[in-house]
Amino acid sequence: MHLQLSNIHYTFSDHTNVINDLHLTIEKGEFVSLIGPSGCGKSTLFNLISGLEIPNAGEILLNGHSIVGQRNHASYMMQKDLLLPWKTVLENALLGAEISKQNLAESKKKAFELLPLFGLEGYEHYYPHVLSGGMKQRAALLRTFLHQKEMLLLDEPFGALDALTREHMHEWLLSVWNKLRRSVLFITHSIDEAIFLSDRICVLAPKPTNIIAEYNVTLPRPRNKEMVLTEEYISLKKQLMQSLQ
Length: 245
Prior knowledge:
By secondary structure, this protein is α/β, with parallel strands linked by helices. It has helices at residues 42-49, 89-93, 95-99, 104-114, 133-146, 163-180, 191-197, 231-244, and strands spanning 3-11, 17-26, 31-35, 57-62, 65-66, 74-77, 151-155, 183-188, 200-204, 211-216.
């Protein structure tokens, strides 16, 4: 067991109950998606895991050790790429390593090794304003992976992309994940995105949230768009749609 959340409760300062008795486990190297209605507390849950917020009650363990209120144990990427416009692709990628005081020489070497995998070879000295939306997201994900944490928290990283670019990014992300095998917790509003990417999908209730349904995705890997026509895919999509009603 890699990440374990037990009996998590969280209330905003205005006494709004956001999370109510949530339980979640993620195995090492597993890709798990969270899906639920807008405003149900998905991003708040990420803030708790990353140590930006502290639960009112409950336990958060990473590899058996409590991480409540502790930071710098997970890489966190939000929907916006948050690239600094005055820094190049390479400089942006190394930003997390700089902040966490990792060995910059080693991080730079690793960045150059990963540039081809992230489709950014030859673009390391480009600035964000000349990159496409998909390339900006790949640069932001490179920074996230370079942070060298086993746990990745991805909060709708492709939400702002057009549909075609988003489909390409799904296949690309799985190819990267398959090679680097980090544990991923992925927030999405898209049932299709969740099915295509995940080993497991957790459905969240409206606020105050907890997990109301959980589905194992047994579709074979590597995945491709043809699988959306299979009976297994269609059946799982129907179940998820019913859970979200």
